[in-house]
Amino acid sequence: MLEFDRLEIRQDDFALTAHVSIPRGAHLAIIGPSGAGKSTFLAALSGFVDPAAGRIVWDGTRIDGLAPAERPVATLFQDNNLFPHLTAARNVGLGLRPNGRMSARDRVEVEAILSAVGLPGMGDRKPGQLSGGQQSRVALARAVLQDRPILALDEPFAALGPALKAEMIDLLHGIATRRGLTVLMVTHEPADALRLGGQTLVVAGGAVTGPFETGPLLADPPAGLRDYLG
Amino acid sequence: MARGARPLTVAGLGSAALVAALVLGTVIAVFARAEGAGALGPADWAAIRFTLWQAALSSALSVALAIPVARALARRRFLGRGLLITLLGAPFILPVIVAVLGLLMVFGRAGWVNDALGAVGLPSVAIYGVQGVILGHVFFNLPLAVRLILQGWLSVPAERFRLAASLGMGAGAIFRTIEAPMLRAVLPGVALVIFLVCTSSFAVALTLGGGPRATTVELAIYQAFRFDFDLGRAALLAVVQLAVTLAAGALALSVAVPSALGAGLDRVVRRWDRAPGWPDALAIALAAAFLLVPLAALVTRGAPSLLSLPPVVWAAAGRSLAVAVASAALCLVLTLPLAVAIHRTGRRAGRGLEVAGMLGIAASPLVIGTGLFIVTFPFVAPGAIALAVTGLVNAVMAMPFALRALGPAVAEVERDWSRLAQSLGMGGWARLRLVLLPRLRRPLGFAGGLAAALSMGDLGVVTLFADGQSATLPLQLFRLMGAYRMDDAAGAALLLLGLSLALFWLFDRGGRVNA
């Protein structure tokens, strides 16, 4: 169980409150108007924004205040997820060994996860030699190797075309289900939220609400979300 | 939020402290040793006056001559324009003594100009003295002035020239309404930078000046050392030099000073007013000739003797290479953590650290050299530590430029990659090895190349410390010139020029390959 307990985030004249509980293994989309604070909310979970008040609790342990790497969270950012000067395998390996020193066994594991995301034998290529979709797969492979129970995604597939994006969300869904990961994915596309399945958090009007069942929510959205969805 | 990679920040603080201790420590030593201000004799006052007025005149001449060249480069497109602009940046890494020798080949007693004058029965001109010092300073600072003023011209939005054309403005009206205001804004800063550079010029005054009428304060420090071995007077003169530099520096800070490492000079401003082409062509041709002919003269004279240089020159070249490479490495080791610490400690503390990195500019090499000499002389023979001191002082002097190149790059890497590194839990060492160094290869190569070339060609602090066994190549070259062995000197100068450029190229190239 992931709990945001009366969490308050303040930045200059921006304020956001969150008081929600998310069951373990849930797949949550986070939607809402731009500027409402979707990314900031996710950053508070990942450890890049300090909340002004409240707590974040994972399975009974308080995790706000911990350094990003000490949290049970693997994060995929909007961009800059892969170091362009390192090969795909070394990028993925950083999920296992943050100091970059891999053993032979680590290499086998990296190759296995690359195959699992559909990139067998591509480990020697640098990100610049991979397509956008392949780069996303490498980043996802690394996030999975980090072996954290929560996966936080801040629109990492936004730059992909609709078909590739659908493919990536399906891949994410499959891996997360098999490993029992809790997924929080920011998106501005209702279609992505539906595709991920499960539930949705709404960030609008200075508050995080939910989780709601995604299908009924989109069929009959509340006022703040209706203006955004149009 | 800035967690992790703390060791590098600590190293940066250490580097700032080291530089501050070196510069301020030597200044304190200089003050402690200086004899009272009443001890300034008429010759010293003459040196102060000469330092100031030659700097003012050099600066005024450089700027005045640079304006037509910059204007021509801003509005003309021609084959070789990019190459010429790159070449205008070259004096920065051109060893002063090499240029001086080139100028001697052209303007000296048996130079090309006097040969030509003699052939038509005109009296010869002398290069040594006031005119030589100013000639040398204009040679080095005209290109800098052209680049800075060109930047001003290219910063004028193209729309303004378009508007002027649609209003039917002639060249005169365009100058009054667009160009004159730009020049008024840009020129004071350019003039002050060059004035500042010329007040602490040593090698030009050492080689072309001298005598009661053309001695700068820096040269007077050297003479107090070398001829009188009067440490008290040398220290007093160092205090004077420090005051001059600080006063000129404070003046420069009060005016917006343009950045010398600006990019994007490859643009040409489209103009619709039809100025005749020949004045621009003349300005460009004269400037190019002024810069290239001395070097061509040097190559012609030096090439034949390059392979028959005496062993003492090759030994000096080897020492210089070692000093240059060590100095560049030291400069990078000091500057990289400093740049990281400046970025990570926030605005106010970072500003203080930046000032520490720039201290090398505030105190001239000869002031630091004098201080180091006073501190170390009781314990070690100066000749024994000449090379180490030279490398150290060169590294500190190159730090401001290295910081200029690395600072923005470090900020960019931190902005783009620090969140990822933090979320992966990369430690300080892993972050340095896997993120910072690979991402910073290009600016590191460039900064290292600058530092190496500057050190290779430096003729400053080494003149105070070196003995017969520890001369660097520039010093050896100076000695050859003093002995009037001009063929060997030209060969050695060519060697020095080649090594300086090669060092810069190698470092810079190393940063680009596979990057």
TrEMBL record, chain A:
Domain of life: Bacteria
UniProt keyword annotation of NADP present: no
Residues covered by the ABC transporter domain: 2-230
A matching Pfam family: ABC_tran
Keywords for the protein's UniProt record, in alphabetical order: ATP-binding, Cell inner membrane, Cell membrane, Membrane, Nucleotide-binding, Translocase, Transport
SUPFAM superfamilies: P-loop containing nucleoside triphosphate hydrolases
Classification via InterPro entries: AAA+_ATPase, ABC_SmlMolc_Importer, ABC_transporter-like_ATP-bd, ABC_transporter-like_CS, P-loop_NTPase
Listed SMART domains: AAA
Molecular function terms, GO-annotated: ATP binding; ATP hydrolysis activity
UniProt protein name: ATP-binding cassette domain-containing protein
From TrEMBL, chain B:
Membrane topology according to the record: Multi-pass membrane protein
Location(s) in or outside the cell: Cell membrane
InterPro entries from the UniProt entry: MetI-like (IPR000515), MetI-like_sf (IPR035906)
One record GO biological process: transmembrane transport
Keywords on record: Cell membrane, Membrane, Transmembrane, Transmembrane helix, Transport
Domain ABC transmembrane type-1: 48-252, 317-507
Keyword Cell membrane: yes
Protein name, per record: Thiamine/thiamine pyrophosphate ABC transporter permease ThiP
Biological source species: Palleronia sediminis
